[in-house]
Amino acid sequence: MFCIQAKHPGAGSDLATGIVCCISRGKTNKKGVKLYSTVFRHKNVLRCTVGGFAFYMLERWQVDKEPLPNFLDPDDWSGVMLLADANPAARMGLSKDRKSTSGGKVQNRKQAIDPRTQIATTTKALLACGIASTKITHGGRHAGTSEAYHLGLDFDHIRHLGRWVMGHVIFSWGLTYKQ
């Protein structure tokens, strides 16, 4: 993983910092082809995944008092789950004196949230926003390519950047590229 800086189209001399991850093997890359996935800040703060992620982690570390991992020690941070399992009492519902929007203190930051809890919570949040979707778990992965399409980008360019294979999006958290 590394960071890059790129000029933002139409923003003059402003630079946008992006995070680049190399995906050398995984569920969607069994042949070991070197693939890259990127995420950049969005100029609209309400649509910025980088800012949203930062606020989420800030809440876990500052509000919920989850121990900050030692980023100099890969063994300490590499197994930390983004959707960590909170205590069972916190999952039972919202209380009046709740101080955290994450639902409670993380008991074990290396224990993943139960998939059923993730789907139920995401479905409830989407419905509260008036969004009906059959793509619950991976719904956010289509946002980058969908936005690029609606902005009028050339389909072949989107397909190349989104790693589409025979009309199927393999992975599209944002625009990605193969090198």
Search tags:
single chain, 179 residues, alpha+beta, four-stranded antiparallel sheet, two-stranded antiparallel ribbon, 6 helices, globular
Structure description:
The structure is a single chain. The chain is of the alpha+beta class and 179 residues long. The chain is 30% helix and 21% strand. The chain has six helices and eight strands, in the order βββααβαβαααβββ. Strands 1-2-3-8 form a four-stranded antiparallel sheet. A two-stranded antiparallel sheet has the order 4-5. β6 and β7 form a beta hairpin. α5 packs antiparallel against α6. The longest helix is centred in the first third of the chain and has 15 residues. The two termini are 15 Å apart. The C terminus is likely disordered. One of its GO terms (molecular function) is DNA binding. InterPro entries: Ndc10_dom2_sf, NDC10_II. It comes from Entomortierella parvispora. This is Ndc10 domain-containing protein. Pfam families: NDC10_II.
Q: pLDDT below 50 for ≥5 consecutive residues: which ranges?
A: 88-102, 166-179
Number of helices: 6
Query: Largest beta sheet, briefly?
Result: 4 strands, antiparallel
| Arithmetic mean pLDDT | 69
Kindly report how far apart the N and C termini lie.
15 Å
Shape: globular
In which order are the strands of the major sheet placed? 1-2-3-8
What portion of residues is helical? 25-40%
Number of strands: 8
Strand content: 15-25%
Helix and strand succession?
EEEHHEHEHHHEEE
Structural class: alpha+beta
> Radius of gyration, rounded?
18 Å
GO molecular function: DNA binding
Domain Ndc10: 20-89
Protein name: Ndc10 domain-containing protein
Region (Disordered): 93-112
